[in-house]
């Protein structure tokens, strides 16, 4: 394994966002056999790496690699199992031309992924799951801090309750950003994700999306709504395999709401939709 790199002084992924004037498209690569969307499951490192190269050809801006499913009701896996899933993929993606994000809550996974070229940390616990994670996070070019309701993915959908869902998530993400900066991180490293579908009911998700632009006052916003269950609830309980139109609709809405990055299963369709949307809405943004 090559020596761990300190990437936090290099130009971040958001430089491209500023030049494109549209959200960056992050392609989801799951080195997992149990993700909620069957077409995103990978049963070998080569299959996961091939998916990354497919997304490169389709116009992705970033690749997000994860080795542990965090779908509602999922069980956690051991550190070694997660390492065994993601490290061989990263080995196959050496010198990959796009920024690589590691989707993990475990500091050791983050550390080893960074040594193999990952420059973005995507932590659904916002640095809360592993106390050692903050020591790793400050060395990444970018860090995505996400809000997750509930104690863990297995129980997070068991009757989530908010008095003010937007206000509560806003306060949480602002506190997490400040925690990161006080620990030695820099503001320009931070992106925030309100956590669509993570401990939220349908009305919570819709309220977040309605007010998405507010979160950009904290830091650039990442949206991960691709093929999620609330789309199925809106559209007569359709399965994940049937939720592409809803996912694309949300991508266009998020673009108007100043989102910086969209985490998606369907890169080509999202990129093309954003190109058309951007051409139509050039210069039109919410104040």
| Binned strand content | 5-15%
Order of strands side by side in the largest beta sheet? 6-5-4-3-2-1-8-7
- Structural class designation: alpha/beta
Give a quick account of the main beta sheet: strands, pairing sense, barrel closure.
Answer: 8 strands, parallel
Helix amount, in percent? 25-40%
What is the first-to-last residue Cα distance? 48 Å
**Which word captures the global form?**
globular
Please, how many helices? 11
- The CATH topology label is TIM Barrel
Q: State the fourth-level CATH superfamily.
A: Dihydropteroate synthase-like
Structurally, the number of domains stands at 1
Note the main attributes of this structure.
TIM Barrel; alpha/beta; 11 helices; 287 residues; globular; eight-stranded parallel beta sheet
